[in-house]
Amino acid sequence: MRYSVIIFLLFCPLCNAEGVVSRTVLDGLLRLELPVKFSRMSEYHLRIKYPGSRPPTEVYSNSDGAVSIAFNYTHNAIHPSQIAEVHTMMSASFRRRYPYARWFRSVVIEKFGTSVFVMELMTPAADTEVHNLIYGIPLKGRLLLVSFNATSAEAERWLDVGKRTFDTIQFPDSTTRIMR
Fold first, then answer.
1. Which string of b and e fits 64-74 if b means at least 16 CB within 10 Å?
2. Structural domain count, the chain
3. What's residue 9's pLDDT?
4. Three-state SS at 23
5. Per the confidence metrics, is the pTM higher than 0.90?
């Protein structure tokens, strides 16, 4: 009985009023825990959120699109040894595009058995600010971008959920998940 309580307490941070469910995304490239009420973002919300640009490969969001987790499996070739260089370019690009952004972190870390870049910042949007958390992961020779974002009104409620969701990322095909 004591072990059941300990196990529950260890996994309780993954629980919230919304609940989570394990989902496989990007045709099986990765699996993670997403809030139960998140579903594929509608074409309507994709056009609003990503006007005039190519939307990410897959996007999951709450019903109004104010909170989302996006997966963009780019065609950009990358080797894990290049992640610091890509991080520098991406960070500089974001700093030019959003000169008034508030940065919380912009680092390269070891995660998933490889180097990964992490950028966390608050960017201006048309009528609010958006809290962004972005991972850049070298995956099978290409760059995978996983991003969580929430409007400033929703960030307090959802930011910890987004961070915990990132911690649940797994690569089911572990033998070839990360090209070295």
1. ebbbbbbbbbe
2. 1
3. 40
4. strand
5. no
Q: Is residue 62 part of a domain?
A: yes
Q: Which domain holds residue 150?
A: 2-167
**How far is 104 from 70, CA to CA, in rounded Å?**
20
Q: What is the CATH number of the domain that holds 119?
A: 3.40.1000.10
Within-domain flag for 177 = no
Q: Tell whether 126 is covered by a domain.
A: yes
pLDDT of residue 153: 92
Kindly state the helix (H) or strand (E) to which residue 47 belongs, with its residue range.
Answer: helix 43-49
Q: Is 172 within a domain?
A: no
pLDDT along the chain (180 residues), means of 10: 44 56 94 94 85 86 91 94 97 95 97 95 91 96 96 93 94 59
Residue with tokens 């919380």: 104
pLDDT at 174: 58
Of 64, 70, 69, the C-alpha closest to 44 is: 64
Task: Spell out the residues 6+ positions from residue 167 whose beta carbon is closer than 8 angstroms to its own.
Answer: none
